[in-house]
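tl;dr need the bound structure. longer version: we got a ligand (FE2/S2 (inorganic) cluster) that a collaborator sent over and nobodys looked at where it sits. i said id run it. heres the input, straight from their email, havent touched it
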Amino acid sequence: MSSADIYREIILDYYRNPRNYGKLEDADVVVRDSNPLCGDEVEMHIKFEDGKIKDIRFNGKGCAISQASASMLTEIVMKKSIEDVKKIGKEDILDNLGLTNLGPARIKCALLSLKVLKMGIYSYLADKVGEKEEASKVKEDANKLY
Ligand code: FES
């Protein structure tokens, strides 16, 4: 089995058995976005505590890459500090999925959830913590993803 096959299997496994799938009743923020090219959606429910992501769930509909990427991302950021989560970039997500040569449409599939997560952090920092300047930087990062 080549490493590409292994990554494909992992993506399919996350797609069929999504981790952290669902909603949080007590979420501080609920954010969603869609891939403008196909209409697929990712929604994230995030609960923060002491500068960390205390709990996170996602739901949505779409291709295996967008949904597996969202599921993996929830595992990566669970219990992490906002500071660490802010540093996660495009390359981290693509490496994690084992995807390197994606065309522009598929890149959006892979990065949709990171964009949603960053918008969630933006919304939390701007509306709940009142750190408008820091929040704007996160929003800028999100908008640069694609
Ligand atoms: Fe829609 Fe991948 S085809 S997000």
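gonna send this back to them w/ a short note. The chain is about 55% helix and 15% strand.
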